[in-house]
Amino acid sequence: MSEEALQFKNRLRRLERKHTAMSNGYRAQLRSDGLIMMTPQRKKSAISGRAVILFVLAFLAFKGFLIANIGIEGYQDRVDRLRSGNAVEAAGSWVMQIDPASELIAEKIGPVLR
């Protein structure tokens, strides 16, 4: 195929990709040279970053509360029992293992609980 035909096919492919992206919405942007460009609007995620951070912090606080309530040895014993279970329980034991953040939270909450 000639060079011009390849360039034409590539341009058509880019235009089709841009057209499908713009079918979800677009916005106009004014460039510094005065040209108005239509750019596709990105889809917003259903889950915000703030929600993910709040979930992780709440989960760490929950683990810290459990460690402070049960004690480090009792908590580690329960995590070890989970580790010897099936695959789902082993994955749960990996998530529930003691980490420095939850241990620090347990140290801070411990005196309040007792």
Features:
single chain, 114 residues, 2 domains, 68% helix, 9% strand, elongated, transmembrane
What does this structure look like?
The chain is mostly helical and about 110 residues long. It folds into 2 domains: about 5-40; about 50-114, no CATH class. It has 5 helices and 2 strands; from the N terminus they run αββαααα. A two-stranded antiparallel sheet has the order 1-2. α2 (about 50-70) packs across α5 (about 100-114) and α3 runs antiparallel to α4.
Shape: elongated
How far is the N terminus from the C terminus? 80 Å
* Annotation, overall tally of beta strands: 2
Q: Helical residue percent?
A: 55-70%
> What letter string, H or E per element, gives the SSE order?
HEEHHHH
- Which sheet architecture does the biggest sheet show? 2 strands, antiparallel
Rg to the nearest angstrom?
27 Å
Whole-number average pLDDT? 89
Strand order of the largest sheet: 1-2
Q: What structural category arises from helix and sheet content?
A: mainly alpha
Unreliable stretches (pLDDT < 50, length at least 5) are: none
Query: What count of domains describes the coordinates?
Result: 2
> How many H/I helical runs?
5
Beta-strand content = 5-15%
Transmembrane segments: 51-72
Keywords: Membrane, Transmembrane, Transmembrane helix
